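User: Sequence in, structure out. Go.
Assistant: Echoing your sequence, followed by the structure tokens.
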Amino acid sequence: MPASEFKIWALDRQRLQIEFFGACENKGSTSPPCGAARGIALINGDIEIFKPDGVDDRRITLTFAHGELIVTKAGRCDLGKYVNIDGSYKRVSTRKPIFIDR
């Protein structure tokens, strides 16, 4: 979805800082971001496991392949009504993203 995005930055060789902002899908239209997740992803080989802050039963797998980010979720992953995090995302910048302060 064009309005959904991941912000990702390597903190070191084992961790990535992650923010996700998801647009709502509702009858084929999109709206401004209405779901979000943030936290630290742990790197395990070619796969990153992202468990958003404050949630124990949510796990999001990030795989970088062929210039894309492939995202799949496991467990209950309620990011907001009509928000879907699964899919592939294309890189739009190599600059350090600006993360929202908590």
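User: And one key feature?
Assistant: Strands lie at 5-10, 15-26, 29-44, 47-50, 58-65, 68-75, 87-90.
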